[in-house]
Amino acid sequence: MNNTNKLFTAIALVVSTSLQAQPDKKLKLEKIWETDTIIRTPESVYFDFKRSTLYVSLIDGAPWEADGKGGIAKMSVDGTTVDQDWIKGLHCPKGIGVSGNKMYVADLNTVVVINIKKGTIEKRINPEGAVNLNDVTVTPSGIVYVSDSKNATVYKIEEDKAALFLDSLPGVNGLSYVNNELIIASGKDFLKINSRKERIPLAALPQGGDGIEPAGNGGFIVSSWPGYIYFVNPGGKVDLLLDTHEAKKNTADIGFDPYTGMVYVPTFFGKTIAAYKIKQGDK
């Protein structure tokens, strides 16, 4: 069984024990830990199950400026150790995707390719016309998709060559590739793209979607930057899992550990990473 199949087997296990709430229960997120306010404007968390490591994109400056302050941090899954200088010299990095030993990071108008083993930048790929690249997802075969929120487009990168894949997606941000389909958060529209590039609505989100994590059996955990995290069930029903907007804690591009049901939340201007576990609570 390859790593991808192991991942989805694990997701199914978590779903059976955590995400399919009993009729008299509802799902919620319970905070397990949170770092001190030292993380340099974290936008995205990627859970690397193969290496049991969290990777965090650090903007450490203006959200959409080429200032050279950004980078990628390497963090333990319990939040106790963090190296915020693992990769330096980026601008305003956001979404992260991994394929084998390569990491792909959306950085303004460039996709940065990082050698994970060496901890070095290998190359930069510049999709033609890209302006504000945002989220990244990678297929099991290594094809990369990256959203451009400014241009309302999605690019496809294959063998280090980028081409326009989709357009006319206002507010496009979150991406996830699941079961040969591309899942997209385009503003409040939550949809999937099949092999024929047909756009199939899945749900209407209360707020614009940011991070997307597959939760098995057709369900998804979806974050919204102002401070909301939702569970979208296979039938399109949207339930609120977490609301931190009044506390002014952003919920940007989340990571998810399907083995433990842990959701890792970058709080952006809150400058922390928080870990929440999916629980069942009273209605």
How would you summarize the topology of this molecule?
Elements: H1 3-19, E1 25-34, E2 42-48, E3 53-58, E4 70-76, E5 82-90, E6 93-99, E7 102-107, E8 110-115, E9 120-125, E10 133-138, E11 144-148, E12 153-158, E13 161-166, E14 172-178, E15 181-186, E16 189-193, E17 199-204, E18 212-214, E19 220-224, E20 228-232, E21 238-243, E22 255-257, E23 262-266, E24 273-282
Antiparallel strand pairs: 1-24, 2-3, 3-4, 4-5, 6-7, 7-8, 8-9, 10-11, 11-12, 12-13, 14-15, 15-16, 16-17, 18-19, 19-20, 20-21, 22-23, 23-24
Task: Give your account of this protein's structure.
The chain contains 1 helix and 24 strands. It is mainly β. The strands form 6 sheets. A 4-stranded antiparallel beta sheet has the order 1-24-23-22, with no helix packed on it. A 4-stranded antiparallel beta sheet has the order 2-3-4-5, with no helix packed on it. The chain has a 4-stranded antiparallel beta sheet with strand order 6-7-8-9, with no helix packed on it. A hairpin with a 6-residue loop joins strand 23 and strand 24 (273-282). The longest helix has 17 residues, at 3-19. The chain starts with a helix and ends with a strand. The model is unreliable at 1-17 (pLDDT under 50).
Provide a concise account of the structure shown.
The chain is mostly beta strands and 283 residues long. Helix content is 6%, strand content 52%. It contains one helix and 24 strands.
